[in-house]
Specification:
alpha/beta, UDP-N-acetylmuramoyl-L-alanine:D-glutamate ligase, Protein-Tyrosine Phosphatase, Chain A, 3 domains, 6-stranded mixed sheet
Amino acid sequence: MKRYFFCGIGGSGMSALALALKSKGAQIDGSDRARDAGAYADKFDALEKQGICLFPQDGSGLNEQTDALVVSSAVEETIPDVVKAREFNIPVYTRARLLAEFLHEHNGIAVGGTSGKTTTTGMIGHILKEAGVDPSVINGGVMLNYADSSGLGNVIVGKGTFCVVEADESDGSIELYRPEVSIVTSISLDHKPLEELRKLFGDFVERASVGAVLNADNPDAIALKSRNSNVLSFSVQGADADLKAEDITPEKEGVRFTLDGEQIFLPMIGRHNAANALAAIAAVEMIGVTRSQAIQALATFKGIHRRLETIGVTKKGITVIDDFAHNPEKIAASLSALKEYDGRLIVIFQPHGFKPTKMLRAGIVEAFDRFLSLDDTLIMPEIYYAGGTAQKDISSADLIKDLEKTGKRVHFIPNRKKILALVKGLAVKGDRIIVMGARDETLSDFARDIYEAVS
């Protein structure tokens, strides 16, 4: 029995892999500085209930019986767990390496892309589950259909031969995966320059042994068509594609569209989710699941935590929504979906990371300028800082100054209590309040605080 120690086990990707390995018989120990600080007690309680032993992040959890220390790609050598592992000559694996090994033990389906991959991964997993394939799924977000699965909802442990994973390009680890099916939902400027992303995704498509699924609406994605002999493409914008969504119609509880004359209802709003659904259908068709099985399953797909997730609608008729959007493409997709329905928007957007914000500044500003109306309101707290040695040479205030030139209603407010007070004073019947941002898990708590404040 292998014994792995996960440093930073509370991360969504780390916890999902840890739980998947535990289900296959491995012994899992772990640490997390958030647990040491007393944060996210429910999450760590859930991990312990699954039989995972948790330790302080001081090196005390590692010993001669530990087979490997598992770390994220950005881990620092000075972390006590890493120092202890070096002392005991314990191998140090990145999460990506171990995930690749897990994937390669199965018939692998890997979902890549700078937007949409978490939802598409969840959709594929749900289709396979409903079709009786009994897959394993390792995802970067909580799948609401399986919120209680293994305690956290970001992993499904199946007995079948198929495994579906969200493949991350942000740290380059996507280059480790050799799946049967590769999916590229989109390629846009995010954590890496476009030229580097094009190469990463091109190689990813080429390594797929059965075939690849590509977004025909995204020029950089469809440009990879020559990299694999078996490609299915999809489109929601009328491009030449194998799967084309037509007559896309927003409805109160989701979106309806037709595919080759067949009506499909998806209980999630937005054209971007119609695109995600097409990608999922194409992927499962490549491995023999029928389209009718896929369509039937998608009608019951509840979505992913923090992807336009409604926290609640108050008695006053104010809706509060929690959303993961953080790059220009995701912001545009979420706002575009919301703008298909009536009601003002009050958006609280927290950028994350100083380097990403500096790189994406123009795109973020352009997305908000394009989709916000003059009667909407945008509020930005300061950039989320997760620690490390980042150069703090940009502020949310800089983005707000850019947006002030557009005439939109914008505010830079670092203090959450002051944001609450402003939102409480602004919100009226019919408004939608959206909390946007990534990495900071307290944003969901903040969304609930806003809901209570405006109720």
